[in-house]
Design a protein that fits this description.
Helix content is 13%, strand content 33%. By secondary structure, the protein is mostly beta strands. Strands 1, 2, 3, 4, 5, 6, 7, 8, 9 and 10 form a ten-stranded mixed β-sheet that branches. A hairpin with a 2-residue loop joins strand 2 and strand 3.
Length: 207
């Protein structure tokens, strides 16, 4: 009778390697499944910015948050936001993080009006009026802490990079064009007072 003289340890090693390979394949598939599908409408890579899911049911998703700087001391807050139930972005504050490690003072971004976040609609902040901020310690290549305040979700604080706005694709970010004002009736020229037309005299009858 022949006997299998292979060491038991070799068989166990092969089984362990097979199990690790299976676990790795599931892990990689999981990472691919939770990718940045919400960012497909963006012309830049999602790896540039910071992503965060907010809430127990992840109903609010912030994708690719960055601060775009085209000059020292100035920046534009850029992100894509998806709300599952609907919300409004009411305010934004930025805290620059200089190289010396001492954070600068919080500076409020200029926001013309709350940004509407309809349920299930991806809202790109740079597609509307730009959220601009001015802070002396803000500069490309550094980092910043950004506090987004939502009407329903409350305040969300995220760290993000400050990217160079003079380089592609960030140099393409520009304010949305303002609508051309239409003249109203009040703008129409009115007759000059005191210069009303006088009726011409009727010709006199001839004899």
């Amino acid at each position: 009778m022949s006997q299998d003289r292979r060491p038991a340890g070799r068989t166990g090693t092969r089984a362990a390697r097979a199990l690790v390979a299976v676990l790795l394949s599931f892990g990689l598939l999981g990472l691919a499944a939770c990718g940045f599908d919400a960012q497909t409408s963006q012309p830049y890579t999602p790896a540039d910015g910071t992503n965060l899911d907010v809430g127990a049911d992840n109903q609010l998703k912030v994708r690719n948050l960055v601060v775009i700087s085209r000059g020292k001391g100035e920046g534009i807050v850029s992100a894509s936001i998806l709300s599952g139930t609907g919300d409004r972005l009411t305010s934004v504050r930025v805290v620059p993080s200089p190289l010396d490690g001492s954070p600068g003072p919080a500076v409020a971004a200029k926001i013309a009006k709350p940004v509407e976040l309809p349920a299930g609609v991806l809202v790109v902040l740079t597609n509307g009026p730009l959220l601009t901020v001015e802070a002396p310690q803000l500069d490309a290549g550094l980092a910043a802490s950004v506090a987004l305040t939502f009407e329903q979700a409350g305040e969300v604080v995220m760290n993000c990079p400050v990217v160079d706005g003079t380089l592609s694709p960030w140099d393409k970010v520009s304010p949305s064009p303002s609508p051309t004002p239409q003249p109203s009736r009040a703008d129409s020229p009115s007759p000059t007072p005191g210069r009303s037309a006088r009726p011409s005299p009727s010709p006199s009858p001839t004899s």
